[in-house]
């Protein structure tokens, strides 16, 4: 019976959204998004009170199945037509930024002795789209709740620092609105955060930042595909000669569905009016999923990994910023 656990996760989701609303009402901005708040609330609740067994099926369903459904629905908000609008040099620069940052971030994480899965989640979160990338990659690599929650928590907190620091950095570097928008799109995690970071630099910065950010989000498909191929390859290599062969899938079903919806959106089979509701539904389901993840977290594991994760994320963000500035110079925008 999943309902007790699902209701608990939904309650945590409601509390997180309520706190996000209060943030906006009093400060004009959500410094911590509902998704991050859901993890924090869920983790604190789990630390002070261990839910009984009747809650476990629903918590697990929210943390895994609802998360996959949220990723699928996200596909309806992504259009491959965005790629054509960005221009080939910039597109190549975005792809290079994503893959170079993933490689360097993963290497940093392993050098700092992070577990392989955590290092990979941090790398993908920093390089692509923060929470959404971590949420999409986690089921593919079978990451545990502790690992996912820790990765999201640290990338989200330092992501806020990026939003606050970008406008003065762009001014110091004397970047124009277009270049400032590209910098925001290449370094900030979520589209709303790109808007917040680019707004002080003008409308052109917001528009360019949003386009670059959406193209960066599209890189999630190739990255997840590659990780799935690597997982299948490792699985085949580990097969023993005796016993039945397990079925190996090239891509998880939810990623296939994500790509199908993105294709439908690109060819106009999904109307513009459906994009916003799809985004909102995906967002709510993701927050409920993050509540489930938080409710499954052992806070002692998170605090034990804290300094190493924090240093990995910080160094990764520094590399991302430097590489993004190099791309801006190379494509002639700076």
What are the main properties of this structure?
334 residues, mainly alpha
Describe the structure concisely:
By secondary structure, the protein is an all-alpha fold. The protein is built from 15 helices and no strands. It is globular.
Description:
With 334 residues, the protein is mostly helical. It has one domain (3-234, 247-330). The protein has helices at residues 3-27, 34-48, 56-74, 81-86, 88-111, 116-129, 131-141, 145-172, 177-187, 191-198, 203-218, 220-237, 253-266, 275-294, 299-330. The radius of gyration is 20 Å and the shape is globular.
Amount of beta strand:
under 5%
Low-confidence stretches: 239-250
Compute the number of helices: 15
Distance between the termini: 57 Å
> What is the total domain count?
1
Number of strands: 0
């Amino acid at each position: 019976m999943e309902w007790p656990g699902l209701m608990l996760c939904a309650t945590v989701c409601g509390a997180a959204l309520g706190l996000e609303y209060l943030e906006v009402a009093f400060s004009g901005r959500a410094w911590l998004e509902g998704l991050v708040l859901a993890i924090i609330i869920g983790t604190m609740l789990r630390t002070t009170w261990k839910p009984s067994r009747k809650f476990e099926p629903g918590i697990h369903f929210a943390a895994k199945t609802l998360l996959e459904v949220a990723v699928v629905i996200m596909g309806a908000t992504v259009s491959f037509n965005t790629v054509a609008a960005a221009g080939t040099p910039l597109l190549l620069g975005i792809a290079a930024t994503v893959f170079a940052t993933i490689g360097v971030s993963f290497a940093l994480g392993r050098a700092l002795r992070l577990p392989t899965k955590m290092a990979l989640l941090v790398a993908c979160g920093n390089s692509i789209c923060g929470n959404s990338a971590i949420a999409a990659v986690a089921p593919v690599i079978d990451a545990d709740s502790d690992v996912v929650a820790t990765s999201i928590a640290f990338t989200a907190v330092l992501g806020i620092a990026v939003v606050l620091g970008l406008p003065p950095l762009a001014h110091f570097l004397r970047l124009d609105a277009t270049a400032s928008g590209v910098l925001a799109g290449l370094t900030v995690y979520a589209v709303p955060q790109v808007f917040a970071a680019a707004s002080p630099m003008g409308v052109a910065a917001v528009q360019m930042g949003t386009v670059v950010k959406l193209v960066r989000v599209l890189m999630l498909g190739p990255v997840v595909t590659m990780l799935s191929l690597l997982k299948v390859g490792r699985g085949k290599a580990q097969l023993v000669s005796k016993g039945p062969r397990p079925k190996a899938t090239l891509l998880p079903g939810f990623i296939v569905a994500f790509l199908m919806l993105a294709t439908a959106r690109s060819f106009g089979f999904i109307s513009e009016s459906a994009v916003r509701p799809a985004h909102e539904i995906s967002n709510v389901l993701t927050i409920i999923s993050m509540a489930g993840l938080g409710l499954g977290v052992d806070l002692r594991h998170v605090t034990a990994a804290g300094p190493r994760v924090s240093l990995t994320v910080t160094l990764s963000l520094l590399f991302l910023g430097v590489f993004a500035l190099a791309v801006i110079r190379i494509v002639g925008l700076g």
